[in-house]
Write a structure and sequence with these properties.
The protein has a 7-stranded mixed sheet. The protein contains 5 helices and 7 strands. The chain has 203 residues and is α/β, with parallel strands linked by helices. The radius of gyration is 17 Å and the shape is globular. The structure holds 2'-deoxyinosine 5'-triphosphate and magnesium ion. Homodimer.
Length: 203
């Protein structure tokens, strides 16, 4: 069986690792957009969906291949939904997980345990080609609480501050396979692959 190559429209090493772990066993021939010199697009949308569409469209346009983009972020209730679509740039440019985490802790310093609920969102967009008028779109969330101090060294982004009450661990303490099974991204991708059903041929 020859699988259609698929461009992953992301420059985030943590996401790319998770996509690879999830898609390689399913026989997808996945390539990071850097292999096609796809530039990072400006994420000018006001929603995860819009930003994911911008990223997928650019990657597909430059590579001439089907593309999958992920726009994701953290929504914190005590911060009225911030950092949301601005999660990657929460502490300004250049993007830095360490500075984003420091800014999050700072913003929540007065917020007591029990009022630190939030969730990760992941929106996936799959385009068969750059002008695909029927993008396949899936969104999933993952509930948790924001810790007052980091725990664990796995994952990426805000994972060392994201507490899972049911697992009694931070995401950064969770084994990678467990994160992929439970996460916003892992579950969105499972749904997307089901929706694809192998029938999405490029045209
Ligand atoms: O599982 C996750 N574990 C921890 N943090 C996460 C996760 N999922 C998203 N996040 C955070 C990281 C980043 O601060 C933002 C995504 O921003 P987002 O624009 O989608 O990604 P990005 O700019 O890092 O790479 P790219 O746009 O090239 O895919 O949300
Ligand atoms: Mg981004």
């Amino acid at each position: 069986m020859t699988s259609t190559p698929l461009i992953l429209a992301s420059g985030n090493a943590g996401k790319l690792r998770e996509f690879h772990q999830l898609l390689a066993p399913l026989g997808f021939d996945v390539m990071p957009q850097a292999e096609y010199d796809v530039p990072d697009v400006e994420e000018t949308g006001l929603t995860f969906v819009e930003n994911a569409l911008l990223k997928a469209r650019e990657a597909s346009r430059v590579s001439g291949l089907p593309a999958l983009a992920d726009d994701s972020g953290l929504e914190v209730d005590a911060l009225h939904g911030a950092p949301g679509i601005y999660s990657a740039r929460f502490a300004g440019e250049p993007k830095s997980d360490a500075r984003n985490n420091a800014r999050l802790l700072e913003a929540l310093v007065e917020v007591p345990e029990g009022q630190r609920s939030g969730r990760y969102w992941c929106v996936l967009v799959y385009l068969r080609h750059a002008e695909d008028p029927v993008p396949l779109i899936v969104q999933r969330s993952w509930e948790g609480e924001i810790l007052a101090h980091p725990r664990g060294v796995g994952g990426f982004g805000y994972d060392s501050l994201f507490w899972l009450p049911e697992q009694a661990m931070s995401v950064a303490e969770l084994p990678a396979e467990e994160k992929n099974r439970l996460s916003h991204r892992g579950r969105a991708l499972q749904a997307l692959v089901e929706a694809l059903g192998g029938a999405h041929e490029p045209r």
